[in-house]
Design brief:
The structure is a homodimer of 412-residue chains.
Chain A: E1 3-8, H1 16-31, E2 35-40, H2 46-57, H3 63-87, E3 92-95, E4 103-104, E5 113-115, H4 118-126, E6 130-134, E7 137-139, E8 145-147, H5 152-163, E9 168-173, E10 194-196, H6 197-205, H7 213-222, E11 226-230, E12 238-241, E13 254-270, H8 275-285, E14 290-297, E15 302-310, H9 314-327, E16 332-345, H10 355-365, E17 370-376, E18 379-385, H11 389-399
Parallel strand pairs in A: 1-2, 1-9, 2-6, 3-6, 9-11, 10-12
Antiparallel strand pairs in A: 4-5, 7-8, 11-12, 13-15, 13-16, 14-15, 16-18, 17-18
Helix pairs in contact in A: 1-3, 2-3, 5-7, 6-7, 10-11
């Protein structure tokens, strides 16, 4: 019997009415002949409330205790979900991460899944039960509760789908799927029917909040078909899957923006091997996550090295940069705290020309100044002034016809 | 190094301020040279809120899922408690029932503790940590979460004190200790310095809400010195311990009332062996908890059998009685739903005379009619009309001088 994993996020289980609606979707799937494993998040704002309770007692709470605390939110949801299913006539059983031996490493608050006892779950499924698993959590080898970090329930769901060789992993959320761009900003954005793992990874890392990046990476690695869909309607959603040849015909799948970014430049660092390595090692030590990196030669002896960070990490990044300024005898450090990134993503870029040209042309026509440019194999990002980013997104979306389904574009 | 177990109930950990105050008591105990194990309940009204959430989804929720749900309340408290201790400079670690292998039977919602891994706790204590254990919960042999029933945190604490051979088990609550009678009703009641397990068992079963009866039974069985004390002051509280000879000098240690009781009588049942057994087996099947039982012979063929139940259980008990009426061909069934019990308790009754006489005399003088009388080795209970029970309690308390410390009583 084929297995489907259905993941319901916090907004989809926020109250009794929503839990019942989610339970109804589970029953429909069973009636369609599937065994169903549910992964659920904490209800509504519960996790935020628990964090607030913790900080009231300890501004710097031990991570182990934080994980012990936060994991209760999901445990509550899954037991309530099981009760709802039983009331609707289905057999159901709930499990914590520990109970299904969702074994992780011991990195509290950011644990990585190592293995899961899929046989244990199969035995329950084979007894005709819906198995409901608390997302976001696992246990380390000593039995300590660990959590997987923000968005970790997506990762739990995809990892379970992989372990159980599920036909599909449905991620229920409050939007119809993945859009060509954020519809709150680019109103004409259209929903994608499918998108490749690589594109979704770029989209997720560039601020498209619909799925957590680690869950997509797990899906790619274990070849899990992921379907992002709305818990409140029957829209088939967006399928995230391996790249298929026809995807290459689509030049650009989506565009994203990242706001609240800052840029730091070290002007005149020694143009010798190892400089960049030293700079980024020091930033990593200070736990600063660096986004884009740009290095250019000024002259044979000197180079300029700049990088983009989240605005929240600017103070830490700036402190490191100031230290390095004297250590490396560089000429100057500059900081820009009002930048944003606009990016286009598409596997089609690998085989087709003219994407960069068209993007820069669109921005020029919209009179948006480009501060700097970075690219990957399937992405082009431009740093622009914060105040111009929404206009930039709209210009780029229209240039790539992201207001139309892929098959209707002139340039598909 | 000697170990002390400190148990904090829901009102003692209801908010951040109270958790900090409880943590302060733990630190004081450590500074006095003890290793400390804390057992904590769910914060304030949390358990009631979770029960309400559950019933909204399922009026008859599966007990396994109910236990999975309710256990989260204690898990939240213990992690927050650990954070508070760490913020105050102590090393601390929290555990769920499952994490310390608090193994129980599989009777959800009313599980009995079978064993606990005391070595695991000792290792953490020997690292200088305060060990904070979620009360009220355990796991069965399959890893399912179980709960011990209302008041179960007291039982967790006493069981841990037994397993760890703790010097003392302190039960922190919102009163100064165990009183000769409920001070809300008999204003002149005095706190007892000590009380025997047997007396406390009778008091608890007769409605003195200060401690859960099962925890006292565990304490008696494993010889755990229990101290009931107020979390908000330094009063030394009441020690519950084995009976010592001088306790016998005290005629009556305390008096209690139980309200919301009902009495059912079966008049004219066959006066043959096995009748009572049949009646109480049927009541047990219907999960009716029977308090006092009175059987008297009417004539050589017929007897009258009556029993007292909580008013809430009257409908179920009455249904059983009506069935039995026709099966046993008894003459009549009567129901009194407005009775209350007033009881006096004291191990001194075993060796001294005149207790019953003095009690009945006090009630007669107060013009309280006695419906029926039952006794145990260390207790006398009178059923009276509900409206007269507070007056009855006062009369009995004054007759036995329960407004004075034991050593000041004329009749001690």
């Amino acid at each position: 019997m084929a297995i489907v994993v259905q993941k319901f996020g916090g907004t989809s289980v926020a109250d009794a009415k929503k839990i019942r609606r989610a339970a109804k979707r589970v029953i429909e799937k069973m009636q369609a002949g599937y065994q169903v494993v549910v992964v659920a998040s904490a209800r509504g704002q519960q996790t935020d409330e628990l964090v607030r309770d913790a900080l009231e007692l300890n501004p710097n709470p031990p991570q182990r205790e934080m994980d012990q605390l936060l994991s209760t939110g999901e445990q509550q949801t899954v037991s309530l979900f099981a009760m709802a299913l039983e009331a609707m006539g289905s057999k159901a059983i709930s499990f914590t991460g520990g109970q299904i031996h969702m074994l992780t490493d011991g990195i509290f608050s950011k644990a990585q899944i190592k293995s899961v006892d899929s046989e244990f779950i199969r035995r329950e499924l084979d007894q005709g039960k819906v198995v409901i698993v608390a997302g976001f959590q696992g246990v380390d080898e000593y039995g300590n509760v660990t959590t997987l970090g923000r968005g970790g329930s997506d990762t739990s769901a995809v990892a379970l789908a992989a372990a159980l060789k599920a036909e599909e992993c449905e991620i229920f959320t409050d939007v119809d799927g993945v859009y060509t761009a954020d519809p709150r900003i680019f109103k004409k954005a259209v929903k994608l029917d499918e998108i490749s793992y690589d594109e979704m990874l770029e989209m997720a890392s560039l601020g498209a909040g619909v799925m957590h990046i680690r869950s997509v990476a797990v899906g790619k690695r274990y070849n899990v078909k992921i379907r992002v869909r709305n818990s409140e309607n029957e829209n088939p959603g967006t399928i995230i899957t391996h790249e298929v040849p026809q995807m290459e015909g689509i030049l650009v799948s989506g565009a994203t923006i990242q706001t609240d970014m800052a840029k730091i430049g070290l002007i005149g660092v020694p143009n010798v091997p190892g400089t960049a390595a030293k700079v980024f090692a020091r930033l990593a030590q200070a736990k600063v996550v660096v986004d884009d990196i740009i290095q250019t030669e000024i002259n044979p002896e000197k180079a300029s090295l700049s990088f983009v960070v989240a605005a929240a990490e600017l103070p830490a990044a700036k402190a490191v940069a100031e230290e390095l300024k004297s250590e490396l005898h560089c000429d100057n450090v500059f900081v820009r705290d009002n930048i944003a990134l606009v990016s286009v993503i598409g596997v089609g870029m690998r085989s087709q020309y003219g994407v960069a040209e068209r993007m820069f042309g669109a921005l020029a026509k919209a009179k948006v100044n480009i501060d700097s440019i970075t690219t990957s194999e399937i992405r082009i990002s431009c740093a622009v002034d914060h105040s111009e980013v929404e206009r930039a997104l709209e210009a780029v979306c229209l240039a790539f016809e992201l207001d139309k389904p892929a098959r209707q574009r002139r340039t598909a």
